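name: query_chain
kind: protein
chains: 1
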Amino acid sequence: MSTYHAPIADMLFDMYELSGMSDIAELPGYEEVTPDLVEAILEEIGKLSEEVLAPLNQIGDQQGAKLENGIVITADGFKEAYQQFVEGGWNSIIFEPEYGGQGLPSLISTAVSETVQAANMAFGLCPMLTQGAVELLTKHGSDSLKSIYLEKMVSGVWPGTMNLTEPSAGSDLGSICTKALPDGDHYRISGTKIYITYGEHDFSDNIVHMVLARLDGAPQGIKGISLFVAPKFLVNDDGSLGQRNDLKAVSLEHKLGIHASPTAVMSYGDDDGAIGYLVGEENRGIEYMFTMMNNERIGVGIQGVGIAERAYQHALAYARERVQSRKLGSTSKEPVTIIQHSDVKRMLLSMKSITEASRALVFFVAGQLDLSKSHPDSDVRARAFSIVDLLTPVVKAWCSDNGIKVANTGVQVHGGAGFIEKSGASQHLRDARITAIYEGTNGIQANDLVGRKIGRDGGKAIQAFIEHISPTLDHLAKDSSDDFTTIHTQLSRAIEALNKASTWIVKTHPSHPTQVAAGAVPYLELLGQTTGGWLLANSALISKRRLAENSGDPKHYKGKILSAQFFADHVLIGTESLSEIVLSGYQSVEAIDEADF
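structure:
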């Protein structure tokens, strides 16, 4: 099984050349973020991921997590790896120094997260959830909750979880039945939550659960949901751990992938009721939880990039070693490594370009997130936030779909060996598959995009974004080389197709929302492909300049140009078809009745 190497060169390229890392480093609070510091951080997390986390990936897949007498035992080496992760300060890099954080930009945190997720996605789920819970408490928690929990959660000593789903309430959170009854300065929670990632484990001596529940007499639907902090162990006034709370994992799910990540069925209040503490105001739980959910949605997009990178490296290593069949068109009858065969090269280029487009999108959005939080100009902050808001569902859905697609192609590159567990290729596909489902299925992301972000907005955000990306066409037009002519032609058609589909959605959504919803997924794919193609086109333009300047690694720059060209030839070329599906594909969906199936 191949090893993993953090793609530091490509990360640094995206951070500085595409996402404005140099400008972000000049924002208030980031003055010490030098290129040397950024590179050192990536090298160190690369070492931890390559030497500690990646070797545990297959072990965790084979052993899984076990529930014995109410205690979850994780796979060999996972507990120790988590301690190294926490002791290295990796959980705290993005958070405020007030609670022990390092206050570094989201762009750096994104690169760190990708490296961890690529090395071991089942492991990476634990800190990913903790970081979302920290952001939630930081924004919405009381001073008392912050003083009790944040320092330990920022460090990662106390991991966090999110408890939303119930047996009778999946994505429809308005249907949840878990109850909370007031009891002095706290509440008593009772109910069952399912699919709770790291709901119970042996990484730490406490776990801090974010739990949605309904108060008696609360309004029906999502407007009657409140949010509570319910720790595994209650915390004494002096900060020490007190009695065990009335909550526990009653079973673990047997899953297609991410076997090492314990997915628990959690029972609250089997005895007197689990003690929980209200976050913010009553009945505003869904609003608060969206802070964590949006954080996790970007995190899932990062997982898609990470698993794609891991699968690509795995397939590339195999293709360089596997000898089979003579080379087509060669006079020699000797078999060659399969990387010399045209179709294998096509598959590898597909994996490479899609992974790089996905990474570029995630890093670009992370850079915009930094601007939206820290730029002194309110207009700049507002424009950046608009881009983050628009593209968050695209990051989650498009990048996770791409992770599945790339991992699937990786199995194909391996041929029959890819279908055999020993090769390791199949694990990437199995692990990646969940990313299109959790944190809101990709269909939900697409409907959020066309409904909330395009339809209700009247197209303002998408039109502003189209104006933002269109100048790249002028830069491409100035280059007369064949490679850049192709990129210009296909990107121009993609932007036109995106504009056409967006205009139709704005016009149609108020009166016929179901017609728009029928084409939501193709529209999200269209926006993702166009944005990815735009970023790769910029990568190609920058790389050509660097080659002319004779600076940097010429192999890397040539690879960026080839990725942009392949993406234009093989991916962007299909955007017009996606636009047509959005405009007219609803007809068959609308025509069919439930009884017709």
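note: The mean pLDDT is 96.
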